[in-house]
Design brief:
Length: 595
């Protein structure tokens, strides 16, 4: 770090000339790495320094934070102790380095301009509306009263609006909305919680909301579109709603006819539908809510949480047919909060797509692909840079476990127990795909991509991969793929033309992933009852007990091979496997374990 930092953007209590350092004055220079950009970290540091009567400065540099503080020994100590315990809710401190430096006799505390140099910058995920913004949203005296895009440095979109790093408004989809004078004052005031809030806006300058019919013609001119949508939902209509990472399809979750209509149009016959409610108390009326489930529901990530359904719930039976669980999430954007508050009850809030296709993000795309599904479209003009499904978790053995990792969590970096000697890409499986870019001992896991079974999802995969490579500045030299030669993800790995391709057996990958998650490097006995996976003997494996570590495995035991008429299709159509079992002793010419 240079001795004299660059130009400043804000200061407090500064004088023209530095004073001689008083006796007993101390100074420290701090270097902080982690998720500390775009999360309100600099204004937090400014407030903490002023509270402890410290002088100095704070600056972002390549996604990390550098601080110099000067003042009394007690003030310096208190500042360093509070950095971790009072950090902004979206921040994550991975490393904190402190060194002694000579006092300069400076006065005032400055927030300096960011320095952008080559480096890998963590990207914050989108998170739910914070309590402070929620209070303003429903306060008639606030200038953002009922404004559906209210945000601050503690909440709102991040990953879905960022076009490039470092995270500044000019590199986001918010750049087309110049801030009005009132928003600009907040943005440049280090004592304001909207200081450098890159999504800062208000009704005067920000994104706008409108409602159309399936042909794109405006509906409800001169009427609050949220009021109109609430009435439509109460009448049993299906509405497409543009959110953070794409469209949702919504209907009244207590109206059996409406839910069946949504299922029929979406071509989703059996899979359960997620339900959105206003708060945890409403969720408790739908499913059994333990302390771990409550914590998962109410965290800033706001995932869908699978709950054990209540028999006395008012939900329509078709929401989760034949299951004793229900997927519930809390309203996580100001738009959702306003809508659910007006409706006054739970809403089905499922991905805005036809079955097996990626969710729609652009307004024109939604009108094209969902015109036969939705009766109306609630749109806004803040572009969605990245598709982003809702995350899904389930509590098992007293801890939340991911079913789908996306909004609220991705693309936060994941520490790895072993460093990769080369930049690496793991292309992921064919079904329920995510991919991972690895640099040294850090993995950047993508949001949920989906099943790679159509051109649209494959295009989504390629777009997300290009975005990750650009955001995190990782150009892989090694690619890891599934052993199955027919998986589209495996073909993508081959097409990349990288010098090193590593084939990984599907069930070994599952066991190694669990070992890596828990930092276990020594051999383990792993049980993988995961259905189909291509084996190293050319047959389909499905129920394996392996002696495995992170490098390799030995097969200890398995279930007996059985015929699979149609190959992988037998895994999706269980009657085929049942028919093959019944005919096991006939001479059908079918080898066990293959189609």
């Amino acid at each position: 770090m240079p001795d004299r930092p660059g130009s400043e953007t804000a200061r407090a209590g500064d004088s023209d000339a530095p004073q001689a350092p008083p006796r007993f004055r101390q100074a420290r220079r701090l270097h902080i790495a982690g998720v500390v950009q775009g999360v309100g970290f600099r204004p937090f540091v400014h407030r903490l320094a002023v509270r402890n009567d410290l002088s100095g400065w704070v600056r972002n540099e390549s996604g990390e934070v550098y601080i110099e503080i000067e003042g009394s020994a007690a003030g310096v100590t208190e500042f360093i102790e509070r950095l971790r315990s009072e950090a902004p809710v979206l921040a994550r401190i991975d490393r904190l380095e402190v060194e002694d430096v000579p006092p300069r006799g400076a006065t005032g505390f400055r927030v300096l301009e960011s320095l952008a140099t080559e480096g890998r910058l963590p990207v914050s995920p989108d998170v739910a509306t914070c309590d402070a913004c929620r209070t303003e949203l429903f306060d008639p005296s606030d200038r953002r009263y009922r404004y559906p895009f209210i945000t601050c440095t503690d909440c709102g979109p991040r990953y879905t609006v960022i076009e490039a790093m470092p995270y500044d408004r000019v590199r986001t989809s918010m750049k087309v909305f110049p801030q009005c004078p009132a928003c600009r004052r907040e943005y440049t005031d280090p004592t304001d919680r909207r200081f450098h809030s890159e999504t800062n806006s208000c009704p005067e300058c920000g994104p706008r909301l409108w409602l159309t019919d399936p042909e794109g013609a405006p509906l409800g001119a001169g009427v609050d579109p949220i009021e109109t949508v609430a009435r439509m939902l109460a009448d049993g209509r299906v509405v497409a709603i543009r959110g953070l990472g794409g469209y949702h399809l919504a209907c009244d979750a207590t109206d059996e006819t409406a839910v069946r209509r949504l299922r029929s149009r979406k071509v989703r016959d059996e899979k359960p539908l997620a339900v959105m409610v206003l708060d945890a108390e409403c969720a408790a009326g739908i499913g059994h809510l333990g302390p771990v489930e409550r914590q998962a529901l109410t965290g800033s990530e706001r995932p869908i949480v699978l709950l054990r359904a209540r028999a006395d719930s008012r939900l329509a039976p078709s929401v989760s047919p034949g299951l004793d669980t229900i997927g519930v999430m809390l309203a996580y954007t100001p738009l959702h909060l306003l809508l659910i508050e007006r409706v006054g009850g739970p809403l089905v809030m499922t991905s805005g797509n036809r079955s097996e296709l990626p969710i729609c993000t652009a307004n024109a795309d939604a009108l094209d692909r969902l015109s036969g599904v939705a009766d109306a479209f609630l749109m806004h003009d803040r572009d969605i840079v990245a598709r982003y499904d809702d995350s899904v978790v389930r509590v098992m053995a007293g801890a939340p476990v991911f079913i789908r990792r996306a909004r609220g969590y991705a693309p936060l970096p994941v520490p790895l127990p072993v460093a990769s000697p080369e930049p690496l890409l793991a292309v992921g499986p064919h079904l329920k795909n995510t991919f991972t870019l690895v640099a040294e001992d850090t993995g950047f896991v993508s949001q949920h991509v989906g099943d790679l079974e159509n051109a649209e999802t494959l295009d989504h995969y390629r777009e997300a991969l290009l975005r990750f490579r650009a955001l995190f500045r990782i150009e892989p030299r090694v690619v890891a793929r599934d052993l199955h030669p027919g998986y589209l993800s495996s073909r993508i790995a081959e097409e990349m033309g990288l010098p090193t391709v590593i084939d990984v057996q599907h069930h070994h990958a599952h066991i190694a992933a669990v070992s890596g998650e828990h930092g276990v490097e020594e051999p383990v006995v792993g049980v993988a009852y995961d259905g189909t996976g291509y084996g190293d003997d050319g047959l389909t494996w499905g129920a394996e007990i392996l002696l495995a570590d992170l490098r390799g495995y030995r097969r200890l035991a398995r279930l007996r091979y059985a015929p699979m008429p149609g190959g992988d299709l037998a895994a999706r159509r269980p009657w085929r496997a049942a028919a093959a079992g019944a005919a096991r002793h006939c001479r059908c010419g079918l080898r066990p374990g293959e189609g």
